[in-house]
Amino acid sequence: MIxxxxxxxxVSILLSLNLFASKVSSEDCIKKGTEYIFSGxxxxxxxxxxxxxxENLIVIVHGTWDxxxxxxxxxxxxxxxxxxxxxxxxxAVALPGYSGSSTNNFTSLAHKGVKNLAAKKEYxxxxxxLVKSLKEKYKAKNITLVGHSAGAMMSATxxxxxxxxxxxxxxxxxxxxxxxxxxxxLISVSYTHLTLPTKRIV
Length: 202
Description:
Layout: H1 2-22, H2 26-32, E1 36-39, E2 42-49, E3 53-61, H3 71-86, E4 88-93, H4 121-137, E5 142-148, H5 150-161, E6 168-172, H6 187-190, E7 200-201
Parallel strand pairs: 3-4, 3-5, 5-6, 6-7
Antiparallel strand pairs: 1-2, 2-4
Helix pairs in contact: 4-5
């Protein structure tokens, strides 16, 4: 009985220390290096490929992968290709819970027990803060947002919520059904009155 109690107490302490350690502050994020940006309460890792066009920025947003997946390993080569073909600075971001990004406020999109995180209002608003932070960091006037899968759904929604933030958008493999009703605070249910502004959509 005492052994079980000590073991349970030890596990609880380790879990609480682990949860505390997973929180990354703005200062800690800066110390991680130039491939990290603190935005929306999260320390986000990104891969950057610098171009000569100073006013434009391409931001690539991935979709749902298993928690902890190295999404930058998958999307950074695409960012590099876009950079080489356009000479525009291209950035692939790793959303919370992927590559080296934190999970201060959000889990990975495929975290067990979390359903439709990419359709949640607070997550799409977080993505907006991240895109705005990158826009300010690179002093860009024009943002092209490239979204894949769940990233496409979030990018389309963000474009409707904050039309001034994004000038061009390219979406691939996304599922977007604004008329499907599900339980929870889903953007698709809450914002069915929004229409996408006129912009270049590929």
